[in-house]
Specification:
Elements lengths: L2 H27 L1 H20 L4 H17 L1 H15 L2 E5 L2 H15 L4 E4 L3 H6 L1 H7 L3 E4 L2 H9 L15 H12 L8 H17 L3 E4 L3 E3 L4 E6 L3 H7 L3 E7 L3 E2 L5 H12 L7 E5 L26 E7 L3 H5 L15 H4 L2 H6 L14 H8 L2 H5 L21 H15 L8 H6 L10 H7 L1 H11 L2 H6 L2 H11 L15 H7 L12 E5 L3 H5 L2 H13 L2 E4 L8 H5 L3 H20 L3 E4 L2 H14 L2 H10 E3 H10 L22 E5 L2 H5 L4 H9 L3 E4 L18 H15 L5 E4 L2 H11 L6 H5 L4
Parallel strand pairs: 1-10, 2-3, 2-4, 4-7, 5-8, 7-10, 11-12, 11-13, 13-14, 15-16, 15-17
Antiparallel strand pairs: 5-6, 6-9
Bound molecules: iron/sulfur cluster.
The site of iron/sulfur cluster (SF4) has 15 residues, from helix 14.
InterPro entries: 4Fe4S_Fe-S-bd, 4Fe4S_Fe_S_CS, Cys_rich_dom, FTHF_cligase-like_sf, LUD_dom, LutB/LldF, NagB/RpiA_transferase-like
Protein name: 4Fe-4S binding protein
GO molecular function: 4 iron, 4 sulfur cluster binding; oxidoreductase activity
Length: 756
């Protein structure tokens, strides 16, 4: 290794240690509070959206409105300028944060000579750091949202886009109030703390000169704003003073007031799990309610008049109009900042937004916001924390493909981060990827898992013995960031494709078959977990299927997970090229590894012509989904293994603990295994943990090993003491459950397949 490379290696090691230390610290200090609150929000979301008959239709409606609004954004900016000005207000389009802050500070400090500005919660105002700008001009800023006020007192940044102080426990807030105010009778309960804050904030509001809000939505046709809050403080902020400044990103514009409707239904349910958020305010500023005179204790509104109210709408660009021109980042602008993607995310639940976030925004979609507003460097700091598990996708009320945005940004970061001095010519010769030289070695290694697996299989069992030898693991950890605490999976010396050919191919002839299927030899099944492939062949043949296992390339999932988009695209084209003749011939494509099926059903639409992607998606099935379909269509279950026929671990009974794969849940195939097992007589308990925490290669990385285990902890709690036989479908889940429980689960197809 050259001295340059050695230096790079040391820097990477130092970075890794620092990142792992930070994550460990946040898991210890903030993780419990974040986990408890976000999981509570998720339960509320499931219950609340479950009561909606038209949830999916509402999401599509919301999506259509945002797509239309962003497409027409320049026109909507012009329109809202006309309507607000006709209403008596002023509109200012700020190019960036400095421009917005200059306008606001001139207004508050110079024109209004304000001593105090009160604010209701606004992430956009956090983004431009308007508090600091105002305070530099001598204007005191008071946050009136309880969570924001707590953070202002603690001098901390928000850790969640809707519940900014989600990381603070009640005890921590009580301690903070006691320290800051030294009250005679320190508040302790949630109610006491809220009342304490309310009294102090009430006094501060009475002496304010200017009120600042954000806006959840603004109707261009009327200048009407929709404000959604939990505490009603936005209403006080708007009405308590004669000057109202609303600071909002340009993406908040929608064409009409009618367009608010689906968002009112969705925003509270998606974020905090409430059917309707506590306060939904629609106002067309300047509002005409009288300006209160708080000197008149008895009746502050007695002589008030709304005639002199002043309103300023500051629309912020700050990178958004450029994002609108960026085909990949544009989708970020559809975000309504509900926080569902944060709450749904296993990693976020463990560390919160102080690790999983950038300068302002946190959670899965933060990568898009921070890349567009701050730049790739900021996005790169936390982008790795999105594992692509896809649990956020069905939770997003505007159907944003959040993992794809993270993948695209990772690809850009990879390409911007290449180290031209890195000596990886040897690796370049060995791996057939499409990436530039100098790519981070860990990224390149994992992204080329298919090549590694081929070599591992060819050289097994020697490769398997060497893979877990201490000194080699130490090198792998230092050079490639593969954590030595993880046991590396072994490779099979006879791949599934070779085994199938050696046995003479299909046991059921096409003439006798009920269906013809191609069993896709995904990389993990073909080179490592061959037994589940063999079990799939036995099960399908027991149901009268003519099975083929052609030698096909990998799906591109490993490079995609590393942000190696060009390599993943090339793999997708190759895999489709191999599968297309079978699809043309009317054969079904049966897939064992859920993350590969998710590629065929979801991600390939990004890589293949629309018709090709749709054909493959329609022809592809999860192996348990396929068995379910065969049984539903008259297949005889007698050939499958019912519990009474089992011996060995399965003989212990009918009782099964099943963990479905996260991506299988997202694409709607997680439940078929349960249905099949129950039909055969098994008593199945399904895990309520949505993500095991392993997420492909994520859990192998030194930076994230402990986080991965923490995310998996609820699964260990649920299945750790079980006397049930544990089954799981995904390779990652299998490895994580092995680490968590001390024994590897089997795939459900291995449970139900007839014995060899
Ligand atoms: S990306 Fe979707 S789920 Fe996440 S905050 Fe935005 S709207 Fe909500």
């Amino acid at each position: 290794m050259s001295s340059d490379a050695e230096a790079t290696g040391r820097t990477e090691n130092t970075d890794r240690t620092g990142k792992a230390d930070r994550i460990r610290e946040l898991m210890a200090t903030e993780g419990d509070a974040v986990a408890e609150n976000t999981r509570g929000f998720n339960e509320g979301r499931y219950e609340s959206t479950g009561r909606l008959d038209d949830y999916e239709a509402l999401k599509s409606e919301a999506r259509d409105i945002k797509e239309d609004a962003i497409a027409r954004l320049p026109e909507l900016i012009e329109r809202v300028t006309e309507t607000v000005e006709a209403n008596g207000g002023t509109v200012y389009l700020a190019d960036d944060a400095a421009d917005a802050n200059r306008y606001v500070t001139e207004l508050a400090a110079e024109e209004r000579d304000a001593d105090r500005l009160i604010k209701s919660k606004s992430m956009t105002s956090e983004e431009i750091e308007v508090n600091e700008a105002l305070e530099a001009e001598g204007v005191e800023v008071v946050e009136t949202d309880l969570g924001e006020w707590v953070l202002q007192l603690a001098d901390e940044a928000p850790s969640h886009i809707v519940a900014p102080a989600i990381h603070k426990s009640r005890e921590a807030i009580a301690e903070l109030f006691a320290e800051r105010f030294d009250p005679d009778d320190p508040p302790e309960t949630a109610e006491e703390l809220t009342m304490f804050a309310r009294e102090r904030l009430g006094e501060l509001v009475e002496d304010a000169d200017v009120g600042m809000t954000g806006a959840n939505f603004i109707a261009a046709d009327s200048g009407t704003m929709l404000l959604v809050t939990s505490e009603g403080n936005a209403r006080k902020t708007v009405t308590a003073t004669d000057t109202h400044v609303a600071v909002a990103g340009v993406e908040k514009l929608v064409p009409t007031v009618e367009d608010f409707a689906p968002f009112v239904e969705l925003i509270g349910r998606s974020g905090t799990g409430q059917d309707v958020t506590s306060y939904i305010s629609t106002l067309t500023p300047p509002v005409d309610s009288p300006v209160p005179d708080f000197e008149r204790d008895a009746d502050p509104l007695a002589d008030g008049s709304g005639d002199d109210r002043d309103f300023h709408l500051v629309l912020i660009d700050n990178g958004r109009l450029a994002m609108r021109e960026d085909e990949e980042l544009k989708e970020t602008l559809y975000c309504i900042r509900c926080s569902a993607c944060s709450n749904a995310c296993g990693n976020f639940q463990s560390v919160g937004g102080h690790a999983f976030g950038g300068e302002t925004y946190s959670g899965g979609i933060a990568t898009g916001w921070e890349a567009g507003i701050e730049g790739l460097d900021v996005a790169a700091e936390f982008n790795d924390l999105c594992t692509g598990c896809s649990r956020c996708v069905p939770a997003c009320p505007v159907e944003i493909d959040i993992p794809w945005i993270n993948t695209v940004v990772r690809d850009r970061v990879n390409r911007g981060d290449v180290d031209p001095g890195q000596t990886d010519w040897l690796f370049e010769e060995l791996v057939p990827d499409e990436e530039p030289a100098g790519l981070d070695l860990s990224t390149r290694l994992v992204g080329n898992y298919e090549t590694l697996a081929k070599w591992g299989s060819r050289t097994a069992p020697v490769a398997n013995r060497l893979a877990n030898v201490g000194p080699l693991r130490a090198v792998a950890e230092r050079v490639a960031g593969i954590d030595r605490r993880r046991e590396l999976p072994g490779f099979a010396s006879e791949p599934l494709v070779d085994w199938f050919e050696a046995r003479g191919g299909a046991a059921v002839s096409p003439a006798d078959a009920t269906r013809e299927a191609v069993l896709y030899p995904d990389t993990a099944t073909n080179y490592a977990d061959v037994d589940r492939g063999k079990a799939a062949v036995r099960a399908l043949e027991a149901l009268g299927v003519h099975v083929r296992i052609p030698d096909l390339p990998g799906s591109g999932r490993p490079p995609l997970s590393q942000g190696m988009v060009s390599t993943a695209k090339a793999a997708a084209e190759d895999a489709y090229g191999g599968l297309a003749p079978h699809v043309d011939a009317g054969r079904d494509v049966v897939v064992i590894e859920p993350s590969d099926l998710a590629m065929f059903r979801s991600e390939y639409e990004k890589f293949l012509p629309e018709r090709s992607a749709a054909r493959l998606a329609d022809a592809s099935y999860d192996v348990m989904e396929y068995v379910f379909g065969l049984l539903e269509n008259g297949g005889d279950p007698a050939g499958l293994r019912a519990p009474a026929a089992g011996t060995g671990p399965v003989a212990s009974g009918t009782r099964i603990a099943y963990h479905p794969h996260c991506q299988a849940r997202t694409i709607g195939v997680g439940e078929h295994a349960t249905a099949v097992m129950e039909r055969l007589g098994y008593d199945v308990r399904v895990s309520d943990t949505e993500c095991c925490g392993m997420a492909g290669s994520f859990g192998y990385k030194t930076d994230y090993y402990e986080l991965s285990m923490d995310v998996g902890e609820p699964l260990r709690e649920q299945f750790g003491e079980t006397d049930r036989t544990v089954v799981a479908a995904g390779t990652s889940c299998t490895e994580q459950l092995d680490a968590l429980l001390g024994s590897a689960p089997m795939h459900p197809i291995e449970l139900i397949a007839p014995r060899e």
